[in-house]
Fold these 2 entries.
Entry 1:
Amino acid sequence: MSALLQRGRAAAQDQAAPASRPRSGKSAAPRAKRENLAAYGFLAPWFIGLVFITAGPLLASLYFSFTDYNLIGDHEWVGAENYERMFTDARLHSALRVTFVYVFVSVPLQLALALALAMVLDRGVRGLPLYRSVYYLPSLLGGSVAIAILWRQVFGAEGLINQVLGFFGIQGEGWVSHPDYALGTLIVLNVWTFGAPMVIFLAGLRQIPAMYYEAASVDGAGPVSRFWNITVPMLTPIIFFNLVLQIINAFQTFTQAFIVSGGTGGPSDSTLFFTLYLYQRGFGAFDMGYASAMAWLLLMIIGGFTAVNFLASKYWVFYGD
Amino acid sequence: MATETTAPATSTRRLGARRTRRLLVHIGLIGFGLIMLYPLLWMLSSSFKPTAEIFRAPGLIPETFTPGNYTEGWTALQFPFHHYLLNSAVVVAGSIIGNLVGCSMAAYAFARLEFRGKRLFFAVMLATIMLPIHVVIVPQYILFAELGWINTFLPLIVPKLLATDGFFIFLMVQFIRGLPKDLDEAARIDGCGHVRIFFQIIMPLSLPALATTAIFTFIWTWNDFFSQLIFLTSPDMYTVPVALRTFVDSSSQTSWGPLFAMSVVALGPVFGFFLAGQRYLVKGIATTGIK
């Protein structure tokens, strides 16, 4: 987000600049007008997309969330009924619980691992590009159906994990088919994709001037002290950025849960992620009104957490300037 | 590290200790990398094992090497697997072209032109990056159903042409801002219009950003499951992820071998693009930060 924010600020400055620049010559006004027209021309596809694909549907789903609609026939205005239903929908409650556990366990673990490895790699390790690629690869593949299939086997009753455990004489569970462990296997999958935040951490570590460390060493600071007093504060914008991003991503996890549970969210709804339940309501039962209400709840949750993150960031994120 | 280099007289003992430590770091990193990659390597090797062996051999070398899983998996579904590969290729190609055209046009406007509402629109564009697809999928589905586009590739491709992947607009805006302005100023003085500046100056210089966009679009679209699951409803239109899903649902314990084989086939192109485009990928996530 820090990059995004800086960009936003830069855009704002750019915007302010031409207004204050003295306009000379008669051609200024027509040129500005021409530029306006050209800009809207270049943006035409984006505008159409905004109306029909992103912002338009966003508002439409708010409207549908107050209706009863099953695709066939008319939609009927039902007021806040869909939202009221949420309070008594036990499956929605377990979907929320599963999703929250997933987000708040897997994201911190993933980021901690990403930071730890970035720090090891940042110490001028030879073969850095190779290590970086190897660790990054799971991030690219992790969201695919094929990897979810692999996970289903690896953590299955006779899967790879249990074969290895059996080697040590331990009798393992059928991890994906046990309500207590199924979610854990998906958390492991998300932690496995720590490579993307790791690459971002690496880029961030590069930005910390070496002289800070040298100065601290001269003053007798040990590695632990250097980590807490230099690395962490200097890296807080990147930690914040990764945190916001990975939380937003994790809330939207769908494919892995869908494949591992065969689309059911089972066993006993233990992998019923919010998006999976939304899919079941909307595209299994064609309960579009309720699915829209759920979509808005998701938006509120993600938006809320992002906002809280931004507000809290004032107290712990350190911007050098 | 800094203290070590400042020590004037480097005793051989210390040098040895440093070398040992460095070696230990490498052993740790390699070991960890192997654990990370082990499931992938094991899936690759298992795709050449008879299914029974998959369930009792955690090792990487197949006892019985057989390509049978591939021939069996290829024809296990209603259509031969290349049918789904081809469908995926069409969707991916359309998405790449769509993103390259739509996003670069929008990015040029945001990066180089002054217009009314720029600040607001730029903020809106950034906000759409965070918009979960799940929030807009129901009205999109209704719209595409009205248009008669369900079970075609259009709902997957047309939005890309309409620059709805704000992430790539942002990526290209970042890049274009970094290009020297003198070039387009000079072209403008020579009487070039915006269209020519866009095509003849900005686009050729933006090739690295375009390549990053193409590679990410390839990988994300190839792996995308949610929207393809929703918009593609009949087996002849299925893409690879959706076909694999029906394979999982229909298969019993006995067909894990073919299932693994087809999963390897599904991952292959992503791996290939990863190898070919690593440089762009790493730069792409380092500058914009999304996986």
Entry 2:
Amino acid sequence: MEIVKPFCQYLAAMTLAPLLPGIVNRVKAFFAGRRGQPVLQLYFDLYKLLNKTPVYSRTATWVFRAGPVAGVSALVMALLLLPFAGRPSFLSFEGDFIFLIYLLGLARFATVLAALDTGSAFEGMGASREMQFAVFAEPAFFLGLAALVRVSGQTSLAGIFGALTPETWRQAAPVLALLTASFFIVLLAENSRVPADDPNTHLELTMIHEVMVLDHSGPDLAYILYGAALKLWLFAALIACMVLPRHSGSWAADAGLFLLVMAGVAAAVGIVESVMARLRLTKVPYMLITAFAFSALALIFQMGR
Amino acid sequence: MRTDPLSAFNFPASDMEPALFFETAASRLAAGGRTLAYFALPEGGGFRLVMAIGFDREGRVEVYSSRVSGPFRALTPSFPQLHLFEREIYEQSGLKPEGHPWLKPIRFNTPGAVPGVADYFTVHGSQVHEVAVGPVHAGVIEPGHFRFQCHGERVFHLEIMLGYQHRGVEKRLSSGPDARAIHYAETLAGDTTAGHAWAYCGALEALCGVNVPPRAQVLRGIMLELERLANHTGDLGALAGDVAYLPTASFCGRLRGDFLNMTALICGNRFGRNMFRPGGVNFDLDPALVKELKLRLAAAFRDVERAAALLWDTGSVADRFEGTGVVSKEAAEGLGLVGPAARASGVGLDTRRNFPYGPYEGFTMSVSGSGDVYSRAYVRWLEIQKSAELAAAWLEALPQGPLAADCGELRPDSGAVSLVEGWRGQICHFALTGADGRLRHYKVADPSFHNWQGLAMALRGAEISDFPLCNKSFNLSYCGRDL
């Protein structure tokens, strides 16, 4: 039984992840006075792309073909570690949060290598930007998780979020609030959302993430889009587990509430995208340094408590 | 030789000795003149160079011409505004401007030339990389090739290579006037229908010596200002879209359509086709339509006001616009920039004020000074207010009278320079008649012809990621430049 439930949660996460971009898009459409695309659009897109034949450049090597598969595999793996509604995850061990960070790093590495393999000036530019901003985003995320380890006294993700209770919020509200803010900024940057990037633009020269995947097509593009949805789910789930450390005891109630908060996080992303312009590319690092500062402050507060 | 815009002059009187021609041209340009047109006119197996110079402060036009047989003296080194004109002369006539620094084809319309195949400016060094964009773009836009020499994200130099859109419009217009000519003029640059149609009609009317009735003048003004409103509103939305600012992008996309629909109410076409004809206009407004237009104009303007207010009040937008893609006043004047792009750099040039025509007596222009994307956006907003005010006033007090006057025969051996302030800037049409009273040559200078180099200058030392935003802030026409 202890295996079956986490596995069901894992499957639920894998299935529901493409719903989040749909919610973001609907919120943006609402603000723009449009009806917007169906919430399930990404599922349709994935189905369509999986049935297509990919096109490969004659100058690209196996690195280019391996990129999307490696990227999505790393994220599928990362999701195994992720607790669902504060419940134990499918896979858990001491210090697995470091493993999670490395899995995300691996996914990024695979995408960047595939981009560089095309030899296109655009993709090289995108790869360079992606790595430049990762230098700022990863420490913020790492330090944030380290602070959570201090708060909960646990070193596995399942342990950390299992140990968070409403009581923790009463005791360490500033720490958790700072971490929520930090994780939200990292979420925006890591998932190429406004204000760090613009997922809707067609202007290659301004893109970060999108420009790296311009040459992928068919199932490869489906893996990339699915991987992006999983990544959004992952960051949103970390935030949801943090702001709603609820253990009502009822599995169904916990899961329902968790999903509601997930939708809320997606809506927040949509609202941010609707009310502000994206940052000048040179200013994105400042935003990520802010996230880093939030995480560092949280860690300092926690250690001084 | 002095003349006025929109009045015919005796062309042979502009003749000069070659040496005197270049001396005069250089001294007139140094004295504050701006080249309106400079081209090689085929004449008796050889060529005649013709230059029209505008004096913005005095509102005066001067035309000089001279027969040349071989290579001639390039004025570009002293007057960069001539660089594209001289390249054009070289491409079309084979006469070589001696001393021109960058003598490349501009339209690739000579036998054997392939668009885009030419030498490009390069920067050498181990860390310099080249980014080539186009001619096929990600959006549904016109083709053009852009080459960036970059160091990391910084742009050293941008070279813009166009010519893919060349259709031979000038040649078509040169064989007129005929019934099709007005339609070629209307589609010279599809989004500037009213501007080019008016310039074409203006040139013919000057050559016929006909006066356009006041009612037709005002109706033309309404068409031109609606065109400006539609395009400026669309541009504000597109600028917002480029920085991912959703609200203004969405609103302005719709509002542009509202202005286009008003144009369609007048003449049946959203882009204003078929409204202009030499001598006047084709469609009238009845009182019911005037009332409807007034209501729609007021409603649309109110909405644009709100959408624009959102844009100016949002800090993240201002942060993105300010200081991006700066073109200094010196550069703008040196390159002979026109239109909102020039006024955003503080250059006081608006054809409606400097060379008043038709219903624009007493027009005051809008200038915004810092030369960045913010200025180019803000100047558009100032002009939207002005245009809405003008159009509303005209609708309020439409002069009575006929819609058109009859154009007779064209004056033989004459020339006319027609200047109109299209929404992108000054449009210049230069028409010349032969001894038979038919058009002998027709020259068009779209504002984009002057302004593309301004975009290249805006990118000097800028971030390559700012290119799309800078490009949108100029929003130039490819086919208007390629003709």
